[in-house]
Amino acid sequence: MPPKKKSAYTVPKLKDFSAAALDEAVQNLLAAVVREAGEVKNELEWKTFRDRWMARANGFLTQVNTLWLKAAPKDAKRDVGQRVNEVKKRVDETIAAALASMQSTASTSQLDTERVDITLPGNRRPLGAEHPVIKTMNEVVRVFRNLGYSVEEGPEIETDYYNFEALNFSPNHPARDTQDTLFIANQESKPLRERLLLRTHTSPVQIRTMEKMKPPLRVVCPGKVHRNDALDATHSPIFHQIEGLAVDTNITFCDLKGTLDHAMKEMFGSSVRTRFYPSFFPFTEPSADVQISCIFCGGRGYRDGGPCRNCKASGWIELLGCGMVDPNVYGFVDYDAKKVSGFAFGMGVERIAILKYGVDDIQLFFNGDVRFLQQFA
Ligand SMILES: [Zn+2]
Question: What is the CA radius of gyration of the chain?
């Protein structure tokens, strides 16, 4: 707060009440009020100024009343009274004028500060873009939607029953080991099948879908999954999968091969070839790993005059797992294993994104570094 300005003016005591002496006193007073009014710059200064002159307790006008009017001899009182009333009126007017002039100056300076320069560049709001993992997931889902598959989703926190038991995992299967699976703590009192865990794959959605739909069905289930894995260039405790399931009468391994071969060509280009290797999953029988011909060396195993780093010179890259749905699984969802058959497959989305975009570290997808992400916008 600025220091309050003191007035240079004081109301004099009058010894002489002659007209000439009164004239001089009044002129001095009016000169003082006009001078002070000219110095007022803001509301605070104006209030100080007003109080100095008008305050009931000891303002200059009160002093004029005491020192001039009350002190005047009887015969001069009438004349002095008139002068004092005139002075009051003039002081009132000066103070009001000072307020008006101060307000109009203030509004001009407010206009100055609020002036809008329409030639300045505007605030650009950067547009968002799909994350490369989500983008890849949507691309894969689109391939299967075009084949007539619908999309199903399920919870990320699952029970042991949906994540393992109904998928034909034996009670002592090593995948339940807490070194592989993240279990919710303090559930030892619950029966095994009711214990909660972070789903380790999207396969539980297959069970949930078969529980609510009768064959024929064709679904893909994209989503986030969790494993108790340490973070390194190829592993992350969180990643994404897309699971597929088709159940109908007379579905054969040929349908599985044809579907996946078509999907891989859609995703990586029509020159890509596929091959199927025997594998094992608890919920499919028979099971297979699917490899695609290396998209970096065209399946030759070498490029740029040396062995291909991406396929370790083999010409093939392993990409997903699949198989015919194990008849035991149908038992959990009231399907008649004698009448229906089907296949299932599952793939890691980050793995596909790494291949498609030539990314060398899975962590880049999760670090949230805008410099990395901008490349995909
Ligand atoms: Zn290669």
Answer: 45
